[in-house]
Design a protein that fits this description.
176 residues, Aminopeptidase, seven-stranded mixed beta sheet, 28% helix, globular, binds coenzyme A
Length: 176
């Protein structure tokens, strides 16, 4: 059974295992869906420690983050996170998300995104959600627009990942 819920610190190991699988998978039509090559070497232990620390921070404090997950049994198969970038942007949250291929295209992305938006709306200090999406990622852009995100501008040649030259699109949602 698929469940969508806020992540707990006890989910961290399964979340990292999901991240490892997800980072190797292709995106829309075989393209990249994140700015890393499938064989990119991550420091998983540091990612784990940083995530746990950022989850423990109040959202009025620099470096906070919150995650929501899609689980199938014990396994985490999708995630969305909201996080602070630096002190001057504490009224905003930067969003990132990803579902493993086995659960894409079934409406779960939209449910996960709505849960994160509802949470952000209920937080008094948050006024905006920001994100960047690789411009060729049509399903993701469609999903964000259907949940009210406005496409602001496309940053030409923002990313160079291995042989790929990628335009990045900035989108945002006003919460209140
Ligand atoms: C992009 C992603 C989050 C979308 O989640 P999803 O569960 O697959 O999408 P949903 O089934 O909820 O559908 C959301 C919308 O996208 C559309 N969509 C989904 N797959 C699509 C596809 N392959 N082509 C075109 N549109 C598609 C749906 O029609 C739906 O639009 P609607 O609400 O107007 O009907 C998911 O596919 C994913 O994680 N992809 C890989 C990682 C990624 O791209 N992350 C985003 C980084 S910014």
């Amino acid at each position: 059974m698929i469940i969508i819920r806020p992540a707990l610190s006890t989910d961290i190991t399964e979340i990292i295992e999901h991240d490892k699988r997800h980072m190797k998978e292709p995106g829309f039509n075989g393209s990249l869906s994140h700015p890393f090559l499938p064989d990119h070497k991550f420091d998983w232990d540091s990612r784990k420690t940083e995530k746990l620390l950022s989850w423990s921070r109040p959202i009025t404090e620099e470096g906070w983050s919150r995650s929501f997950i899609l689980t199938e049994g014990e396994k985490v198969v999708g995630h969305i996170h909201l996080k602070n970038l630096f002190h001057g942007t504490l009224h905003r949250a930067q969003l990132g998300m990803g579902l493993e291929m086995c659960v894409r295209g079934q409406g779960f992305g939209k449910k996960l995104l709505m849960m994160a938006i509802d949470w952000a709306k209920s937080e008094e200090t948050l006024y905006w959600i920001d994100l960047t999406v690789l411009d060729h990622n049509l399903p993701a852009k469609k999903l964000y627009k259907s949940c009210g995100f406005e496409e602001c501008f496309t940053w030409k040649d923002r990313l160079r990942v291995g042989p790929h030259i990628i335009d990045d699109t900035v989108m945002m949602l006003k919460l209140k």
